[in-house]
Structures are given as structure tokens and as C-alpha cells.
Amino acid sequence: MPEFNQIKWKFVDTLLKIPGMNSFQMRSTLLKDLPDTALIRDEYMARHDLDEIISGLKTLGRLNDQGGTRPLIVVAENALHYVSAAGDVANALNEVIQELTLYYGGDIQPEPPPPPAGQQEAMIFGLQRDSRLSFYFIEGAIRIGKSVSRLSVPRIFNGKRRKDEHGRDEYMFGTGWLVAPGLIITNYHVIEARDRQWEPPAHPSDFQAQSELVEAWFDYQHEAELRLSCQNSILVASDQQLDYAIIQLAEAAKVANRAPLRIVEEQPQLNRGDRLNIAQHSGGGTLRYAIRNNFFVRPGDTSDSILYQTDTEPGASGSPVCDDAWQVVALHHASKTTSAEQVPQEVIDGKPVTVTILNEAISIHSVLKSLPAAVYEQIMAAQKSYGWVSKHP
User: Fold this and answer.
1) Which domain holds residue 31?
2) Phi, psi at residue 27, to the nearest 5°?
3) Is the pLDDT of residue 69 over 80?
């Protein structure tokens, strides 16, 4: 069996012989007919970009088409469209296809034998409610978890830190995530660190002071294990109405190797029942995922918001709301009480349960469109550097 790295080197060398392959757009066409995949891309270095494409697609597995085609073979077949069928490059690409087929042990996925009578496998609710997910979903959850952080914000009143009854500094907690290298987005009210029911809004000078003393914990997955702490930050943008704040970490070098979360390129038109997943540090605790009973219900009261049933708790404010490809579609920020008629109802232990609460998020493109131009361009440049956007929203 051929060694994969040898196949990869030959594959990259062959692709680089195709005219125009130094163009990022040209290289992107090699991904035609493949599912949207969060690959690490390099816009400027063609060899590195192709190496990352091939390495990333190697782990994707078979496609869900007839025969279970391998993604790397699709890339090679796409490349064949750009070269003469009788030329040396085409011959080399066909050799790569043969070597990949041998490496994978045969590209055709055999049909399983029919089950005994009365034991036919079945989709319980049909394809319309297929709850299965590929292993890539789990890989994606782990990957984005590296760029989600638990935030602690000191409570400052009139320039002085608020103390509790034991003389300790008071903090409020939230969740943030990397939207560009060293740049974290969260909610405005997380940085404000006030009880919105009982306390007045923070004075602008206190808000500014709190934003500079944020501490972000990354890799906070287990209570007793080490986590990566980034202390202090600079406020670069905020909006109270849309409830977002963006801070630049003072110790950004510590997380320079972590990719920002991928923002969905265009704000999607969600349908009732679409899955929305949330990675969160609820209660200021370890990272948790809401990925099961997680359904979009309806648009919010404004065009900027959406409502869903994905579970959260205090401390989840600022979490990314993601689709099943772990693309961010919204910024979680609150819950909302509504009438039971507007919420899908539940049956637990055989008894009906009245549900009158939905969670709410701000659509991510509403946030992007409101940003100062320099911050917007910084975020878009980061997204583009990973090959995740081809145009501005």
C-alpha cells in the first residue's frame, strides 16, 4: 500500500503544474461538488494551500453519493478538467487516483447484504428528521471549542472594584469566541457586568475600565486541569442595542495559532426545526455543548434576531450559535418569555409540559454590518485567510 505523504507530495506537485493554480480562486474550484468543509486555507502560498486542502479532506471520509466517493478523488477529477487528456499532467493525476484508490483499499463501497425478513433497518421519522451526524460534526465541535473562551469581568462602580461580603472582588461571567486572531466577540451586557433587573447601566468610564480587565480562559474543559489564561484587553467596538462587544486580547500571542470561528457567508433563511448548536461556558463553568434538543423556532421581534429552543444558562451570554457545519449564524444573548401557542410543546415522562420560554440571538450579519469599517475589514480578512468567504456580506 502506498504511503499517504508520498501520494500527497506527488498530488501537490502535479496540481502546481496546472496553469493558473497560483490563483486562490482557481484552487478553490478543485472543491467543486464537495460538501462545505472548514478547511484551513492559505490565500497567498499555493503549495501550502494545496497541502492543507489535501490533508484536511483526507479526514472527511466518504461522500454520501452512490458508491461512497472519496473527496480527494473528486479533487483529482476536478483537476482533470483543466488539462489535456493525453498530456503528462493528466497521466500523473490518473496515477494519483489509482494510488488513492489503492490506499483506501478500493473506492467502491459495497452494498450490505439484505437483512433477514422482518429485520429491515429503518429511519424512524424518515429522511425529513434524520438525526444522524457524521464524525466530522464531532471533530468540528472539538475544533471550535479551542476558540471559545470563558470570560470573567470585574464589577467596577464609580471607578472602584465592587467587593462581596468577604472582601473579595466581584465578577460576572460570560462566553466569548475568536472572530479574528486575538479578537473576541461577546455580548455588551457581559462586559457591562450589571444585574439588568436591579442595577442601573454601567457608566461609560466603568464600562471602559471593565473591558480592559477581562480575563479569558481557553481550554477550560475540566475543573481540575490547567487552562490557558489571557489577561487584559482593549475594547475595539460595542453596541448596546445589538448587545455585542469586541475586545482585542492584550496577550493575543498566546492564542495566535487558534483559528477564528467560521462565520456563515450569508445570513441563512432558517426553517422551523433547523438545528442550532451552542458552545457555552454557562454559569462560568467548563465548556458545554447544546446539540440535542436544539431547534430554530421563528424569527425574533426584529429582523436582527432569531428564536430557538437550544438550552442555555446564565454565563452562556456571548456564545456562538452554529449550524451543523459549526458555522456561526448568530450571537446568543438572552431568553424570552412568550405564549405557549408560539412554542413547540413537549411531553416528558408521558406528561405534557407547558413551554413558554425561547432563547434569543442576534443574527451575526446584523452585527457585522454595524461594525466600524476597520474592525469589519479585520474580521473579513481573517475569514478570507482561511478560505471561508469569497465576498463581503
Assistant:
1) 4-103
2) -65, -35
3) no
Residue 24 in any domain: the answer is yes
Residue 347 counted as domain residue: no
Domain count, the chain: 2
Q: State the cell numbers at 352.
A: 405534557
Q: Taking the chain, what is the end-to-end CA distance rounded to the nearest angstrom?
A: 46
Residue 155 has which C-alpha cell?
464589577
Give me 127's grid cell.
429522511
pTM above 0.85, yes or no: no
Residues 6 or more apart whose CB falls under 8 angstroms from that of 78 comprise 29, 30, 31, 32, 33
> Is residue 275 predicted with pLDDT exceeding 80?
yes
9 close to 39: Cβ distance less than 8 angstroms: no
* CATH number of 218's domain: 2.40.10.10
| CA angle (157 as vertex; 156, 163 as ends), nearest 5 | 65
Written as nine digits, the cell of 330 is 448568530
Q: Rounded to whole angstroms, what are the CA distances from 95 to 31, 88, 200?
A: 20, 11, 70
Please determine, for residue 24, whether its predicted confidence score (pLDDT) is greater than 80.
yes
Distance, in Å, from the CA atom of 369 to the CA atom of 377, rounded to the nearest integer, reads 11
Task: Choose the most confident range, by mean pLDDT, from 13-22, 94-103, 205-214.
Answer: 205-214
Cα 264 to Cα 31: distance, rounded to the nearest angstrom: 18
- The C-alpha atoms of residue 175 and residue 314 are separated, in whole angstroms, by 10
In this structure, the answer to whether residues 151 and 220 fall within a common structural domain is yes
Q: How many helices (H) and strands (E) does the chain have?
A: 10, 18
Contact 34, 63 (CB under 8 A): yes
